[in-house]
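Study this pair:
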Amino acid sequence: MKGKEAKALMQVAKRTTINHIVRNRIKSLNDERRHYSGLFDRFINKAVAITHVKTHGEYEKLTNKVSNDRIIDIKVNPWNTCVLRKGTFVHAKCSEDGTPQRHKAEPSLCLGCINGDIEEGNFNGIVVYIKPDVEACRNPNLPLFIKMAHLVTVRLALKRIKELSKNHDVSPYQKYIDFLNETIEMVVSSEEAPK
C-alpha cells in the first residue's frame, strides 16, 4: 500500500512541477531578462506565437493545454531538465528504436535535444559535466579524431550558454563563453595545421 501511495504522491509532485515550469516559461515571454535556453523553450515560444494568446485567460488555457496534453514526464539532470513531450520520442537524442532512453542522459545528448530545458541554475552543471570534453579538446597530446567527438559537446554547450546570456547587458557567462570559444579554436586550428 505504501508503495502505491508514494508513486501517486510522486506523480502529483511531477505534475505540479510541470505546471510550474510551463507557467513560468509562458509568463516570462514578455520579460526583458529571460534566463532560459534549449529546444523546449523554443517550443513554448512557438506555441504562444501560433495560438496568438493575448489575455490572461488565454495564457492560462495554453498553460493547461501544454502541461496536461503535451508533456508526459520530466527528468531533472544537473545540466538540464528533460521535458518529455508527446510526438518527440523519435526525435529525442537518447531515443533507440523510437523509445527515449532517459537513463542514458548526458550533456552530449541532452544539450541538443528537442526535450531539453535549460535554466540559469543549470549553468554550473554544464560547466562541471562537460569538463572532460573541454579537457580532451585542450589536450595537445590527443589525436584530432578523438577530440572531434568532444568538440560536438563543447559547441552544444557554447550554444546553450550563449542563449542563456543573450538577455544580459553584462553577461555573467562571458568569461566561460570566451573560454569555450578559445577551446574550439584550439581544435579547429590544430585541424588546419599542416601535418
The chain has eight helices and six strands. The CA atoms of residues 131 and 154 lie 9 Å apart.
